[in-house]
């Protein structure tokens, strides 16, 4: 089907086939250059620096990891975590203080608070009898109950 | 002249291996050079690839199994080395070029070892526009006059596919020449 005799046009017969040339005496020295090249490649393969060349990427990788550890991981571990610990201690202190204040405020009942506000006597605490105070505590009454008691 | 079998026998013996390889280089250097040169079109590139081809042949001597002829094996290595080289160069040059074959045409125009006239330059430019596979088939058939059966072994392609490739290549070359020949005649 594809016979070249039928398809080859005239223009292909019009020219000399090889228009290329080589530098003078190129082929004469080719064997020597090829053999020298092969010898060079063989020497390069068996060179003592080859072990170092092979290990070079691995060593580079180890050095990079060490550098990253020193510059990033170590400072984070040493300084940042210490700061975090301190901050969390502060936070716990602050919250316990708030709890304490809240507790104190809840202990102040309304009557005491109002009487304190409108009373001229600034030393009322001194008149509280300890037995009365203990009796008051032992009743376990709520603020509403105390208020209704006072009202009655 | 040393036969292929004598070369192969000597290559197996470590004491005669280097000398046998010298014989191999001496016997095939010109054929391989011209085969590579037709693909790459430039002497300097051809010299590089030819050196690499012989190094590959030297390193692969132990793997040669004599299932194909020595000539076929050598041609196959030279062809593969040329295509690999060409692809690497094309990839490197592609960013600045609109057509990948411009690299080959540029190679041809800058080659100081091209002695052809305008017709030959036109023919080479036409061949340079072909896809790699068609170009190799055209070169092997037209310039090297290699039989399809041998070409089939070298390129590991069926004879029918090779004939079709050559047919299409000739048609494309003819069209290119017809389109550009007026510039020469005027």
Kindly describe this structure.
The complex is a heterodimer of chains A (152) and B (186). With 152 residues, chain A is an all-alpha fold. Chain A has a domain at 109-152. In chain A, 71% of the residues lie in helices and 0% in strands. The longest helix of chain A is centred in the middle third of the chain and has 59 residues, at 49-107. Chain A is rod-shaped and about 135 Å long. The N and C termini of chain A lie far apart (125 Å). The model of chain A has no long low-confidence stretch (mean pLDDT 72). The longest helix of chain B is centred in the C-terminal third of the chain and has 27 residues, at 159-185. Chain B has helices at 4-12, 17-40, 43-59, 70-93, 101-110, 118-128, 132-143, 148-155, 159-185. Chain B contains 9 helices and no strands. Chain B has 2 domains: 1-114, RNA polymerase sigma factor, region 2, helix turn helix motif (Rna Polymerase Sigma Factor, Chain: A, Orthogonal Bundle), CATH 1.10.1740; 115-186, Arc Repressor Mutant, subunit A, CATH 1.10.10. Chain B starts with a helix and ends with a helix. Chain B is 76% helix and 0% strand. Chain B is mainly α and 186 residues long. The mean pLDDT of chain B is 89. The radius of gyration of chain B is 18 Å and the shape is globular. In chain B, helix 6 crosses helix 9. The chains are: A mainly alpha (152), B mainly alpha (186). At the A-B interface, helix 2 of A face helix 2, helix 3, helix 6, helix 7 and helix 9 of B.
